[in-house]
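seq:
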Amino acid sequence: QLQLEESGGGLVQPGGSLRLSCASSGRNLDRYTIGWFRQAPGKEREGPFCTSKFSGATSCVDSLKGRFSVSRDSPKKTVYLQMNSLKPDDTAIYYCAAGFEYSKFEPEYDYWGQGTQVTVSS
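struct:
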């Protein structure tokens, strides 16, 4: 089993930054691809919009490139999501999830954190 726990969410003003953490325990995180998902109020969960592959490669969707980035600290068993220039539309519950391989399909991710709330508001 792999356990994931997100942290770092909170209330931030438009234009601000947050760094979310996805800390793991149990199995070796480096065997998994980590995807970041989010669910805005009244909307379905979307993602993965940023991924950290077990190969070391990272990527984010084009619409978020330049504002969001993802990194992995293997010794700390943690994947980070750096979010800059935040907008009110970024308000959502943010989840990290682990899968054996990269997939753009949510059901392919086997392990999920409980989510962390990000609110962008003045």
